[in-house]
Amino acid sequence: MADKEVITDPKTLETLAPVTTAPIRLHIFVCTGKSCSAVDSAEVKAAFERELLARNMLFGKEKKGKNPKGSVLVTECASVGFCAIGAAVMVYPDGIWYGQVRAADVPELVEEHILNGRVVRRLALLKVPCQGSEELPASSGSDATNWEA
Ligand code: FES
After folding, report:
1. Does the beta carbon of 86 lie inside 6 Å of ligand 1?
2. Ligand 1 pocket, 34 CB below 6 A?
């Protein structure tokens, strides 16, 4: 099988994936696995989108009412193991995992964590170290040494 050609031209990349040049500061993952869905994680995700839209912070396509230069990305994810204590919400690069999140909690999470950088301790269950590394693992096959995350 022939190797896939990797696109490296910055303008082409920006056109194909505008997120590559957006000023993303935070990425919020909302689990939409089966158990989290059963406690209405879709409404949790919708609540994040509403709160961030109201502040013009939600990254996304303009034609969908979002901000292409928004600083916060909200996406779904699959199960992370909080199934019995969902809905699970993870905020990166802070590495904070929240459990038992309901839509009613979202305004507080946005005000405290997203806007002011204060973890909402009553819902926070885990902090994953996210210090990263400037070098990719040898297994990545890349010789990049100036990788910044
Ligand atoms: S279904 Fe959400 S953590 Fe498992």
Report:
1. yes
2. yes
For ligand 1, atom 1: residue with the closest CA: 33
CA of 61 to the centre of ligand 1 (A): 28
Cα atoms found within 13 Å of the Cα of residue 120, Cβ hemisphere only: 20
Tens-place pLDDT, residues 28-86: 999 999 999 999 999 999 999 999 999 999 999 999 999 999 999 999 999 999 999 99
Secondary-structure class of domain 24-131 per CATH: alpha beta
Predicted TM-score of the model (pTM) = 0.86
| Interval 114-134: pLDDT, tens | 999 999 999 999 999 876 655
For 37, the enclosing helix (H) or strand (E) is helix 34-38
Domain boundaries defined on the chain: 24-131
Location of structure tokens 């990263």: 132
